[in-house]
């Protein structure tokens, strides 16, 4: 198993928490999704070669970087990730992004092209149609469903939070990696526990992801070698997939559909993690 540690990268407005697995000069920067944390990459990190370092920040507004304030957005996250690379002394890396992290990865490559060797986009990054709804909150709920509701909920204890996650249809297989991911997301006092993810950050980032210019411009200007890994199943562990039609993506880069994986288990399930690690 790869060694694991966390470090704090100083920024002008606080500290960015970064999870690090492994060692060596070959490095992968791994960017998580909209309500997630760096712990989403644990299974992938454990499957990488011993000479590969995986660097996974908690994006501002999430995990132990939750106290970092806005503004948020894909460009802000991309610049924070580059600050982490600077602090750790890595000039050029493979950049992988899952879900919203795929959009951050694209924007990072667009804003800082010299820092990116190649891109691996994991069920996120290429444009998505604007979801239904009249407000950002309604559109967010339409896309991520139970994950959006979780941000406003309070839990009496750790077991109650685990049971909430166990009921999610995408997590039919409960593993130690999923449990560690869930436990890391919990904060607060007993009787009033909650997700670490900031509802403001999730809302603002979702608006930027769908309607902001940074991600759309980065996609149109893409010039790095890139590969798209597509989950066969969607956010709720069933069809349709998040990316229902891979043909427009395949016109820009190779697409590989990971069978028997959903939007979450493409990272947090052993089969999905095997495929992502093999690609990296």
UniProtKB/TrEMBL annotation:
Keyword field: Hydrolase
Keyword Hydrolase: yes
Entry keyword annotation includes Hydrolase: yes
A Gene Ontology molecular function term of the record: hydrolase activity
SUPFAM superfamilies linked to this entry: alpha/beta-Hydrolases (SSF53474)
One Pfam entry name: Abhydrolase_1
Residue ranges constituting the AB hydrolase-1 domain according to the UniProt record: 27-145
Protein name: Alpha/beta hydrolase
């Amino acid at each position: 198993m790869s060694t694991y540690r966390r470090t704090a990268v100083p920024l002008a407005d606080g500290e960015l928490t970064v999870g690090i697995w492994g060692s060596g000069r070959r490095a992968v920067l791994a960017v998580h999704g909209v309500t997630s944390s760096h712990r989403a990459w644990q299974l992938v990190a454990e499957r990488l070669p011993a000479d590969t370092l995986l660097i996974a920040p908690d994006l501002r507004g999430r995990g132990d970087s939750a106290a970092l304030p806005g503004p948020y957005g894909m460009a802000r996250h991309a610049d924070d990730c580059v600050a982490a690379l600077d602090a750790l002394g890595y000039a050029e890396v493979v950049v992988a992004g899952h879900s919203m992290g795929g959009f951050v990865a694209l924007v990072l490559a667009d804003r800082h092209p010299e820092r990116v060797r190649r891109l691996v986009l994991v069920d996120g990054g290429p444009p998505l149609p604007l979801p239904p709804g009249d407000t950002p909150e309604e559109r967010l709920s339409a896309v991520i469903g139970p994950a959006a509701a979780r941000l406003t909920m309070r839990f009496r204890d750790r077991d109650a939070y685990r049971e909430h996650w166990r009921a999610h249809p995408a997590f039919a297989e409960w593993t130690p990696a999923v449990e560690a991911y869930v436990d890391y997301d919990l904060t607060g006092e007993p009787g009033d526990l909650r997700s670490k993810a900031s509802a403001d950050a999730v809302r603002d980032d979702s608006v930027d992801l769908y309607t902001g210019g940074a991600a759309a411009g980065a996609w149109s200007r893409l010039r790095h070698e890139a590969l798209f890994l597509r989950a066969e199943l969607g956010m709720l562990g069933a069809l349709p997939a998040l990316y229902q039609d891979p043909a427009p993506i395949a016109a820009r880069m190779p697409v590989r559909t990971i069978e028997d994986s959903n939007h979450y288990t493409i990272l947090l399930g052993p089969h999905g993690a095997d495929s992502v690690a093999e690609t990296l």
